């Protein structure tokens, strides 16, 4: 597997995943094609290229493919590992399709449903209220005899289950469904500690997950079927430093403020408490601060 580390593999996600060894991925993040059955270069979605590959499967075929892909990712993920799966509720031909329909048929444990508020949307047809939300499913591979699993690295950072940030600007990223680099940065920082981690994106598209992994000093593996997007993603990876500021802004949210008790234990004081103890300290070096 060493030859795949920090590289993008061209091919169909399911076929490539079947060639991987078991139990070596720490965390995965992806947003698969949504099977919207739209003309990618038509009036509904403009200026979108993806070679000759379009979302034209039947819903049954699509859901089975997603089940197969997710089960392969489960196989190659370590015990205690996680996979974050970005998808949405869809309406096609009078029917509503929800991701939980196929997620519940995989080997994964659905640990949490996170709402991604995209903060914008194009109400192209006006048949319903604007759909500004998508879902991010935290899927978990249980550790034997441990139903709860690992704690978040960011457990004290007060991050909620509603994430609000817009998708990447289409002028900067021509991919049809680009999530912002903030999204994988938040996940990677929350799940992996500073010293380890291999990050997988089996539908890596324009490479956003991989750029985030590189900037956070994590190893990564990407898979995509489009040569055009692989080339674009590799350019972004090479120039990852250009996106460093955005990742650093997200990291600031993970800096946990110490409680008063912790500051007191460390001999640190703030506000009026700081002034009081400075005065006491000046009056007598013999006073012991608790």
Structural commentary:
This protein has 290 residues and is α/β, with parallel strands linked by helices. It folds into two domains: 255 residues, Vaccinia Virus protein VP39 (Rossmann fold), CATH 3.40.50.150; 33 residues, no CATH class. The protein contains nine helices and ten strands. The strands form two sheets. It has an eight-stranded mixed sheet. A two-stranded antiparallel ribbon has the order 4-5. Strand 9, helix 5 and strand 10 form a beta-alpha-beta unit. Helix 4 packs across helix 7. The radius of gyration is 22 Å and the shape is globular. The C terminus is likely disordered.
Largest sheet: 8 strands, mixed
Superfamily (CATH H level) name of the largest domain:
Vaccinia Virus protein VP39
CATH topology of the largest domain: Rossmann fold
Rg estimate, integer Å: 22 Å
The average pLDDT value, as a whole number, equals 81
Determine the fraction of residues in helical runs and give it as a percent range: 25-40%
Low-confidence stretches: 37-53, 273-290
| Total count of domains | 2
CATH class of the largest domain: Alpha Beta
Strand content: 15-25%
Topology, number of strands: 10
Question: Structural class of the secondary elements?
Answer: alpha/beta
Q: Distance between termini?
A: 54 Å
SSE arrangement, N to C = EHEHEEEHEEEHEHEHHHH
How are the strands of the biggest sheet laid out side by side?
1-10-9-2-3-7-6-8
Quickly count the helices. Answer: 9
The name of the CATH architecture of the largest domain is 3-Layer(aba) Sandwich
**Overall 3D shape:** globular
